[in-house]
Amino acid sequence: MKRKRSFSLFFSALLSSALLITACTGQQANTGDPQNTKNDSEQIVLKMGYYSDPPTQKKMEELLAKFMEKHPNIKITTETGPHAQFFQKLNTQIAGGNAPDLWLSDGVKVFEFAERGALKDLREWIEKDLSKDEYYGMDANKGPGGEVWGVPQGIQIGVLYYNKALFDKAGVKYPDANWTWDQVKEAAELMTIDASGKNGKDPSFDPNKVSEYGFTIFSSPVGVSRGWFPLMKTFGGGVLDSSLQKAVLDTPENKQAIEWMVDGMKRGIFPDPVDLQSFQDPFKPFLSGVSGMQIDIYAARVKMREAGLNFDVAPIPAGPAGKRFAPSIVNSWVISKTADEKKTQAAWEWIKYWATDDEAQREWASLGEAIPVKKKVAEEVLTSDTSLNAKVFLDSMEFAGSLDANAVFGEWRKAFDEAMFPAFSGEESVDQGLKKANDAVQKVLDGFYKK
Amino acid sequence: MNQNTQLAGEWKTDQRPEPKPRKRKRLDSEGRWGILLISPYLIHLIVFVAFTSIASLYISFTDYDMLNPPEWTGLANYSKMIDDPLFWKALKNTLYFTILLVPIKTALALVLAVALNQKLKGLKLYRIAHFIPVISSWTVIAYVADSIFNPRFGWANSLLVSMGLDPKNWLADEQLVIPVLVAVAVWKGVGYMMVLFLAGLQNVPGDLYEAAEIDGAGPLQKFWRITVPLISGTTFLVLILSTISSFQSFEQIYVMTAGAVDGVAGGPNNASLVLMLHLYREGFTFFHMGYASAIAWVLFLILFVFTFMQMKLQKRWVHYD
Predict the structure, then answer these.
(1) Average pLDDT of the segment spanning B271-288
(2) CA of residue A229 relative to chain centroid, distance
(3) Which residues of A touch B290 (CB under 8 A)?
(4) Facing B67 at nearest CB: one of A7, A95, A281
(5) Is B139 in the A-facing interface, judged by CB distances under 8 Å?
(6) Which of A33, A150, A396, B208 qualifies as a cystine partner to A332, CB 3.0-4.6 A?
(7) CA dist B256 → A277, A364, A369, B99, B227 (Å)
């Protein structure tokens, strides 16, 4: 009998504590809404997600505090993490109906979310509050039906980085805005040194024992912004047509571009995929001062400075017919489709603050991670940077283009990589590689767009 | 021997009385307490294991991108798998990895356990040395492995070159990548299996060895005739655990074959793409959660068949008393 009573006591204690917990969470979840409907001046709680590292997280929190000071009726709670983990978590959050109301999207991921119906069209908001011409990258998030899926948060643009010390050592003139790819190769030959100190032009140069490379150009998936993709573009080729639903890889222009790359790798003046693997990190050759040049984005300056390199930048060289291209990634603020009207309004206030407040733009730019989206501030910030020819970044905006990012960007990029691997490692002809890559990329596109 | 079987017999009669037939259907107080006390585990099982498994089975028959509700597509994901060359490559790689890893790790763990079951000076130190990799994270292990297998700076190549051989590209070589991964996995995993074997060895009665010695048995005979049969239960456990864990290996391959750099690990030309990696890539990178779930269920079926076969075969060689 006693046992029975103690059992019921224990059980009811368990039940009531369970009820208590659910009651608590219910209460918590409700604090936002009823109050908001009561009075507009009362607080709206907004959930924001962004990817970060410790310095960017610190700066973002500072800016959020300033914003909330100006907008006491908006309270922004944040969720953050390193890039890969952040997006993995985001996917599961959206799946579980628990997405942030607003988040910072990597530029290449905007369409992955938008074309799967997870984002709000911000066209009307932008037209109302932002003057398009004042910003970089406003067209980057434009959908085929005129929708605009995001507002630029920061701009990345690809340029040619070069190590001045290696150029000086080889006695080669620094690259400038008029350089062509042939000049890049010529300089790379002179800067590449083998174990016995011979350069790439020497007939007895040993391409299997290179200690310093002339030019790092990536054939791996990172080459979409730092290798094969911008190269193909300047040669007049590309991956997708303007609809972004058709592969156009199997062209003479692409063939010419990739053959130019493979030739450099075969001759040992560019590190091939296997050489890069031996450095642990493919960015290491340039960062450790054993590669003369590398295509990289604006943010790369930070690590290069930390590594103590003596470097500068030039625009990405023009192709054989003089065509110019600079890969650009427009990281953007996006609003979840599930955000209600009030939360959308509050989220928009934050986006508007980010885009229009010059001080906020300057603060973010002080990290050196991205080019400010507001042209006026970008010019101010970049012209004040005298450590390198920073104007190159602004000039490159003239011929900036997207990475053909669409709903299946990550997947077609991998398909390209898989199909082209044998061609880059010299086991197959470039022709064969491009044919295979074209089919593989088209299959990925059809898998999504022709469902 | 006689004494031993007699003891086993006694244990059997003492500890396992014939269960009385129970007629009452309702649980008594003790039964209810039992249910209540195991309820945290039961709730975990139902919510986090049973429910999610059934959900993933359902998802495997749908087209599900995680952002929109799943759409029923019947067996489409399973038939896609048949036509997916990467699935077959991943399956082949997984089997190759397992077939290399399991026997080597088990044999080495047994040898180490026998060696470290002796009365040696500094015994604990040796045991700890073998157990440290087990508790280290894969990222740390990957760095250590890189100091060995880095084609440019690693000492494996320094060794080859000093012997007058050509340096190898190790993890960047399609033929070598899996053997190198297996070598590292053996190093990381052998300590754990060694501890299991050590526990098994502690249960082997010392008087059996004494008796065998009196009968004139040598060390090898003792090992094969006494140790191996008497720890066969442990060996079986080690085999099952190793097989399952090597089928599921993900972290190692993700970390060691460039996953951190561009998020699409798998080694040169997918030479180290294993099923778990393929599943992860399809589900979390390419939004094909339906297909990824189908791969998960096929992986489960393969593991089930393997384990079932091992269970059937154990009757021939595993002795529990």
Answers:
(1) 90
(2) 14
(3) none
(4) A95
(5) no
(6) A150
(7) 11, 34, 28, 20, 37
Residue whose structure tokens are 């070589």? B173
**Mean pLDDT lowest for which of B208-222, B251-265, B297-311?**
B251-265
CB contact, 8 Å: B270 with chain A? yes
Both structure tokens of B238: 């080690």
**CA–CA gap between residue A347 and residue A64 (Å, rounded):** 12
The one-letter amino acid at B316? R
**A387: nearest Cα among A314, A316, A313:** A313
**Which residue's structure tokens are 């021939």?**
B316
Q: Label residue B145 exposed, middle or buried (CB < 10 Å: 0-12, 13-18, 19+).
A: buried
Q: What are phi and psi of B112, to 5 degrees?
A: -65, -40
Q: What angle do CA A290, A394, A217 make, to 5 degrees?
A: 30
pTM: 0.81
Contact at CB, A418 and B65, closer than 8 angstroms: no
| pLDDT tens for each residue of A25-76 | 333 333 334 344 444 567 899 999 999 999 999 999 999 999 999 999 999 9
Tokens of A198: 């011979």
**Residue B166 touches chain A, beta carbons under 8 Å:** no
CA distance A166 to A192: 9
Partners of residue A295 on adjacent β-strands: A160
Instruction: Give the C-alpha separation, A390 to B266, whole Å.
Output: 38
At B123-139, the pLDDT tens digits run 889 989 999 999 999 98
Cα separation of B23 and B28, whole Å? 12
Q: Please state whether beta strands A74-81 and A291-297 pair in parallel, antiparallel, or not at all (unpaired).
A: unpaired
Distance (Å) from the C-alpha of residue A53 to the closest C-alpha of chain B? Answer: 15
- In tens, the pLDDT along A262-300 reads 999 999 999 988 788 777 678 989 999 999 999 999 999
In this complex, is the C-beta atom of A220 within 8 Å of any C-beta atom belonging to chain B? yes
